[in-house]
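Hey, quick one: can you model this chain's 3D structure?
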Amino acid sequence: MKKYLLLFLFLTELLSASQIEYELKIYQTIFQALFPGKNVIHVWSDSQTTNRIFTKTRDIQLVTAPAQADILLLGTGENASNLNGLKFATNYKTFKKYKKSLIGGFYWQKGRPNIIFIKRNLEKYHITLPKSMSEYIEDY
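Sure thing. Here's the predicted structure for all 140 residues.
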């Protein structure tokens, strides 16, 4: 019985690690589209879960103060209205609640990743995404 439990724990950890790597690749693609040519992206997040994803890369650096960040990732959205800068949601509830001030969102829904950029907010910040990301731009 102990062998099965250990095997289950090992497989669970292995699947979790691969999902983190997959999420990291998605974030890297998003950040490269938003900040072309920038070698290191400074990210602030209100979610420990999101922060854990970025410990595996050098091109995304976590910062402790929102003012130091190139982009703010909002998981809970707590105090989102008090934050200045480019805001990006990491879950659906936060996206729906703060979509007027967000440039977009990346969240999981029904086991699938969803990426959305809000057209008018991209225009507000004079951000032009590459053509490969145009399918993710929507009017809200």
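One thing worth noting: Residues 3-16 have pLDDT under 50 and may be disordered.
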